[in-house]
Structure formats: structure tokens, C-alpha cells
Write a structure and sequence with these properties.
The chain is mostly helical. The chain is 58% helix and 0% strand.
């Protein structure tokens, strides 16, 4: 039986630091630049951007790790 659900994964092709913004952008189907700006604004106006980025970095697998299994 196929799983027809989306999964949040870090991008290996569209990355600047860890691929978090590229992965979130792909999951939400938006431009990665928009996600990077949102994370930057969240970082500047509080520490929420930093903690969200860190948690996704640690919790989300890279997209090529799923394909290898």
C-alpha cells in the first residue's frame, strides 16, 4: 500500500546551511527565498526563528536519505 502523504525533509539540492528552508519551501510549495525571509524575520524579532530552524534541522531527514532506504 502506498503512502500518499507529504513528508517534511531537508533539501540536498536547494540549501544554504542545512537545507531546512529549501525543504520547508518544497513542503509548502512556495519559493525558498520567501521561507528564508520569514526565518530571518522570525530570528530578528525574537528567537523563534532560531529554535524552529534548529528543531527542523535535527528532526527532519535529508531527502536523499529516504530514497536510499
Amino acid at each position: 500500500m502506498e503512502n500518499n502523504y507529504k513528508r517534511l525533509m531537508r533539501s540536498t539540492t536547494d540549501r544554504r546551511i542545512a537545507g531546512v528552508c529549501g525543504g520547508v519551501a518544497k513542503y509548502l510549495n512556495v519559493d525558498p527565498t520567501v521561507v528564508r525571509i520569514v526565518f530571518l524575520l522570525a530570528l530578528l524579532f525574537g528567537s523563534l526563528g532560531f529554535w524552529a530552524y534548529l528543531i527542523i534541522w535535527l528532526a527532519a531527514p535529508e531527502d536523499n536519505m529516504i530514497e536510499k532506504q
